[in-house]
Design brief:
Elements: E1 2-5, H1 13-22, E2 26-31, H2 37-42, E3 46-49, H3 55-62, E4 67-70, H4 81-99, E5 103-107, H5 121-132, E6 138-144, E7 146-147, H6 155-161, E8 164-166, E9 173-177, H7 179-190, E10 198-202, E11 205-208, H8 209-220, E12 227-229, H9 232-241, H10 246-261, H11 266-270, H12 280-293
Parallel strand pairs: 1-2, 1-4, 2-3, 4-5, 5-6, 6-10, 7-9, 8-12
Antiparallel strand pairs: 9-11
Helix pairs in contact: 1-7, 3-4, 4-5, 8-12, 9-10
């Protein structure tokens, strides 16, 4: 199959590209960074250098493809994150229809069943709706849970304050996922050409925040590490004080609140998938390495 991978050689794109190449597919990787071209080609894939906001570029790149994997590149500088997600989805939709692509896999998120009150995830909901409107395609929305690597962001707090703190924590449940497990799910879905408006949840492990803190704490030599629930205004002040744009901070807090209330995982819990290969204890090894390096 001729498959287009967006997202360059990022957290998901890199293992996904390798998996698809190992299966014998012809893979083209889209990247906005020309410096990535040599690395992409060294893997045996083709490099298409351009922006996913350039519909003409997407149409040309998608032409003749059997399947495309679409994701929204993070861009916290965008003043309206939700509108940004919707704009990228519209670019994909236009190119998919013009190029006549029939198999589409879209990186969404758990919580995307909700139309609002989920922060950034509302953008995933909007993106799903845009792609759902495309006629005569086979479409799968991949809804991963909380990315393990987001936990790296708490390392400075652990070092300075001695605990993890967010608007969620304590006994709140946190389903987490490794990008490599997401990549395997995407590759599996691409190999199934007859899916129609299907949702697939992907997760690697599921613990309470207190359990997460215990595993990470043991890995870094702080066995009594706590994960505290903080007030929204306290988190807002901390995020903006460290330079995060107000709109991004508001979205992040709203997302965290949806984790705290359990709303984000309501639909996930109805269709809870089998856990992937990378456990929290596996990730804790990488977390400890990053903690000790910093």
């Amino acid at each position: 199959m001729k498959i287009i991978v967006t997202g360059s050689l990022g957290h998901i794109g890199s293992p996904l590209t390798r998996e698809l190449l190992d299966k014998g597919h012809l893979v083209t990787v889209i990247s906005s960074n020309a410096e990535r071209q040599a690395e992409i080609e060294s893997l045996g894939a083709y490099a298409a250098i351009g922006s996913v906001e350039d519909v003409n570029f997407l149409q040309e790149t998608f032409s003749g493809a059997d399947a495309v994997y679409c994701m929204t590149p993070p861009n916290f500088s965008e003043p309206d994150q939700i509108a940004y997600y919707q704009r990228i989805a519209n670019c994909y939709a236009g190119a998919i229809q013009h190029a006549g692509v029939k198999r589409v896999v879209y990186l969404s998120s758990y919580g995307a069943h909700l139309p609002s009150s989920t922060g950034f995830i509302t953008g995933s909901y909007k993106g799903e709706q845009v792609l759902n409107a495309i006629p005569n395609i086979s479409l799968t929305h991949i809804r991963p849970t909380y990315f393990y690597y987001n936990l790296f962001g708490f390392i400075p707090m652990i070092r300075s304050a001695g605990f993890i703190g967010a608007v969620y924590g304590g006994e709140d449940k946190l389903a987490m996922v490794s990008p490599s497990d997401i990549a395997l799910a995407i590759a599996d879905e691409i190999a199934q050409p007859d899916s129609t408006n299907k949702v697939r949840y992907v997760t690697s492990d599921d613990r309470t925040c207190n359990e997460v803190a215990a595993v990470l704490g043991a890995a870094i030599g702080i066995p009594d590490l706590q994960w505290n629930v903080l007030a929204e205004n306290q988190v807002m002040q901390a995020l903006t004080a460290h330079g995060m744009p107000a709109n991004a901070a508001i979205n992040l807090i709203e997302l965290g609140s949806a984790i705290h209330t359990g709303a984000l995982r309501e639909d996930f819990d109805r269709y809870k998938p089998q856990a992937g290969k990378v456990s929290l204890e596996d990730f804790a090894i990488a977390f400890a390495a990053a903690y000790n390096q910093q």
